[in-house]
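Hey all, sorry for the wall of text incoming. These are the two entities for the joint prediction.
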Amino acid sequence: MELLTAIAIGILFAIGVFQLLRRNIIRSAIGLIILANAVNLFLLSTGAYIGVEPAYVSDSTGVLSDALPQALILTAIVISMGGTAFVLSMLYIISARYKTSDMDEIDGLKN
Amino acid sequence: MLYKHLPLLPIVLPLTGAVIALLLSRSRSLQALWTLATMLTALASSTWLLAVVWRSGQPLVFQSGGWAAPFGISLVGDLLAAVFVVMSQLVLATGVLYAIGSKDSVVRYPTFYPLYLMLAASLSGAMLTGDLFNMYVFAELLVISGTVLTAVSDDRYGTEAAYKYFYISLLASFFMLLAVGCLYVSYGTLNMADLAQRIAVDTGRLLLPGIGFLMATFMVKSAVFPFHFWQPDFHTAAPTAVSAMLSSVVVKLGVYGFLRMTTLLFLPQAETIRCLLVVLGVVGVVFGGLSAIGTHNVKRMLAYSTLAQVGFILVGIGWGTPLAIAAAIVFAFNHSLIKAAMLMLAGYVASRAPVKSAGFDVVTGVGRSVPVAGVLFFIGSLGLAGIPPTNGFISKMFLFSSGIDAAELGSLAFIGMGSILTLVYTMRAFQRIWWQEPSGGAKAKPGGDHLLAPAILIVLVLLLGLWAEPLVQVAKDTSVWLGNPAGYIQAVLGG
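and here's what came out:
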C-alpha cells in the first residue's frame, strides 16, 4: 500500500510538473491543480501508516492514528481551492483580453 | 505573566479592523480613516510589544487556546519578531497615508482597505508565529491579499503581473507544504522551538529535502536571484501604495525566514545554508544593480534595486557573525523605510506625469515643477546608496565593518562594487526626472498624490541616520538573543 501510494504521488507530481511547463495557459493552470493534489497526498502519507485506531475515541485500545496530518490537509485543501478559483478567474480575464491561451502571445508585460 | 496576550495584538487588531472596514465600505472616507486608525493602533501595540520584550529580556509567548507548547500554536514575540513587526507596521501605516492622499482609482475600490489590513495582519502573523504550518497559512493570506490588491491596479497589466506572481507563489506554498511534510514525518512536530530541539540532536531521514524546500520557499518570498523573475513586473504593476509595501516590507518575510533558519531551526546545517546565502546575496547585489541600470521605468528600477538590497541583507546573514547579523537587521529596517519612500515618490511623479506612467520617457523633466519631491528623492537616493547623513550610511557602514571583522574580503569587494551601482542608477533617475528638460514641452499636471507619507518616511530616514544609536542597540541585542537559541526554546516549551 505504501509503495502504491508513493508511485501514485510520484506520477501525479510528474504529470503536474509536465502540465505546468506547457505553453497553454489553461493547461498550466490544470498542472497547478494536479500538483496541489499531489502535495496533499504527500501530506496525507506522512501520517497514514502509523496506527489504525481513530484518534480521540475514548474506548479504543490499539495504536492511535495521527490526526494532525488530516487537519493540515484540510487547511491546505481549503487554501488551494481558494487559490485555484482565483487563478481561474484571473485566467479568464487574461484570456478574454488577449483572445488567446498561448503564453507567447500574452506579451503585455514584455514591453 | 502580565503581558501574556501582547503578541496577539499586532495580528488581531488589523484582522478585526479589516472585517469592520468591510462593513464601512459604503463610506469611503470613513473606511479610510478607520483603516488609518487601526494601523496606528496596531503600530502602537507592536511598539509596546517591542518595548516590553526589550526591557524584560524575555520572549513573550502566547499559547493560543491554552494548549501547551508543542501541541497548540504558540505565538512568540521575541526581539527579532518584534523588530520586524514594528518595521512592517511603521511602513504599512505610512502606506495608508499615501493611499488616502492618492488619486488612483484603485483606492476607491470597496475592498481596497480591508485587503490592505489583511496584508498587515498576515505579515505580522507570519513573523510572530512559532509554528511552521501556521506560518504557511499566514504567508498564503499575505500572497492572496497582495495579489488581489495588484490585480485591481490602475495599471493595464495589473492582472497579468498578479497572475504571474500568484502562480509562482502557489508553487512556493507547495514547496512550503512539502517542507512541512518532510519535517513532520522526520520529527513529529511543527513547533519551531520543538523542531530546533530535535534537529539539534538527530538528523532525520527527510531533513535535507525539508531544508531545501523551505529555502526555496523563502527565496521566492524574498525574490532572491534565481527566483526573482516575477518581482519587477509585480512591483511595477501594483498600485503605488501597495507596491511601496510589497517592495519594502513584504520581501522581508523571506529575510526573517532565513534568519530563523540559520539561528534557530537548522543550527547543525547552518554553515552550509550561510555559504549558499552569501553566494546568492552577492549574485543578487551585482545582478540587481546591473538590471536596475538597464531599466526604462522608475518603479521597475526600484524593484530591481530591491533585489540588490535584499542581496546585501542575505550576505550579512550569510557571514553569520553576531555583528553581521545585527548589521543585516539594521539594513533590513533601514531599507524598508528608504525603499517605501522612494517608491512613493516615483508614484507621485508618475501621478503628475502627462500620461500616468513611471516610464523614463514619460516622466523626464516632470520633476522640474515639483522641487520638494526632488529634494526628498535626492535624500532617498543618498540613503539607498549609503551616503551620510542618511540611515543607509549607517546600515552600509555597519555591514561593511562587520564584513571586515569577519575577514570576508572576497564577498565584501563584490558588494562594494554593487553599492557603487546603486549610486549610478539612483542618480541617473534623479537627473532625468528633475534636471533634464521635458521632451516635447510636456508640463506636469497639477494635483497628483499627496507628499505627506514619503515626507514622513524621509524624515525618519534622516532621523535614523543622525541618531542611529537605539536601532543599532536593538539590533545588537537581537543578535545576542539569536546567538542563544536555548533561551527561545526554553521560553516556548517551558513557559
